[in-house]
Design goal:
Length: about 300
């Protein structure tokens, strides 16, 4: 029987907890107001497990969609549990897609369209080079992103989420190093990780500079359209870079390229406490347990 390809576990912080994605399931561990840990698991939709996930560039778009949809679902679920709502109602598709649409529209407007407008109307009248214009726009985009991170760090609830983010990284780092998944061992691991979404977003912003520079300085309507329709392409290219970088992080050149993203993670992660580490550990153990059980069942059926 052929050996299965290695799988890289990962997830995200949610409200008072952590979501972890496995091969076949996603697990969410959320701390209730009474201190108890609520751990739930559900199977992944087929779109997140199909053959398209293995095709370069296309897989980046699939994973982007997966991250957005699963992320919103996990956040809504965690909000319900953390607020002590006992009714386990299904998340309304209207609420899910509405939240997703608003989030995407906000991100595109703030991080892609706003820098373009500021550059065109405030900077372009004084420069002739389209390349310089795109470089200034790109630097402005990164500056807005960093300012946004600094701003939301002022919100106590966000700082708590960032601590759970740090907990998620610690347990994944421990697992990938082969360390026993015990609380005392996990504490010593880093709160940064090469596959972090923060690093991915920074790569997206840098790749965007290159892609938009190749377009020159077209009319405003076409420039705005390009900032929207090319996002999936930029995300796909960025994902391949992050994937390659994570697999070759021991290489000095690759590590130096990943360094800015790792440094930026200091703004989106915080040192977690034992309670937060326990939540991340419970979520990871749940998906590993489910994967092991399903693999054993598959092997039994094949036999």
């Amino acid at each position: 029987m052929a050996m299965s390809k290695p799988f890289y576990y990962g997830g995200q912080a949610v409200i008072e907890g952590v979501m972890m994605r496995g091969r076949e399931n996603v697990a969410i561990a959320v701390r209730r107001p009474n201190g108890e840990l609520d751990v739930t698991s559900q199977p992944l939709a087929s779109i997140y497990k199909g053959c398209f996930r293995d095709i370069p560039l296309i897989r980046g778009i699939i994973i982007l969609i997966e991250t957005l949809v699963l992320g919103i679902q996990a956040l809504l679920h965690s909000a319900q549990i953390a607020s002590a709502e006992e009714e386990e109602e299904d998340i309304s598709p209207t609420l899910l897609w509405g939240s997703l649409a608003i989030g995407i529209a906000f991100a595109v407007a703030i991080f892609f369209v706003a820098p373009l407008l500021l550059t065109r109307y405030l900077i372009d009248p004084y420069i002739a080079s389209a390349l310089i214009s795109n470089l200034i726009e790109g630097v402005m985009r990164i500056g807005i992103f960093i300012a946004y991170l600094k701003l939301i760090n002022l919100i106590p609830d966000i700082r708590t989420i960032f601590a759970y983010h740090g907990a998620e990284h610690k347990v994944v780092n421990a697992y990938e190093s082969g360390m026993s998944l015990e609380l005392e061992h996990i504490k010593n691991y880093s709160t940064t990780h090469a596959r972090c979404g923060t690093s991915f977003l920074l790569v997206v912003l840098v790749v965007a500079i290159i892609v938009f520079a190749l377009l020159g300085r077209p009319p405003m309507w076409l420039s705005i359209l390009s900032r929207v329709v090319l996002i999936p392409v930029i995300a796909a290219i960025s994902y391949e870079f992050v994937r390659f970088g994570s697999a070759h992080s021991e290489n000095r050149v690759v590590h130096s390229l990943l360094a800015p993203g790792l440094i930026l993670q200091s703004m989106t992660t915080r040192e977690p406490n034992n309670s937060q580490l326990e939540a991340a550990l419970s979520a990871l153990r749940k998906v590993i347990e489910t994967d092991s059980s399903e693999n054993s069942q598959l092997t039994h059926n094949e036999a």
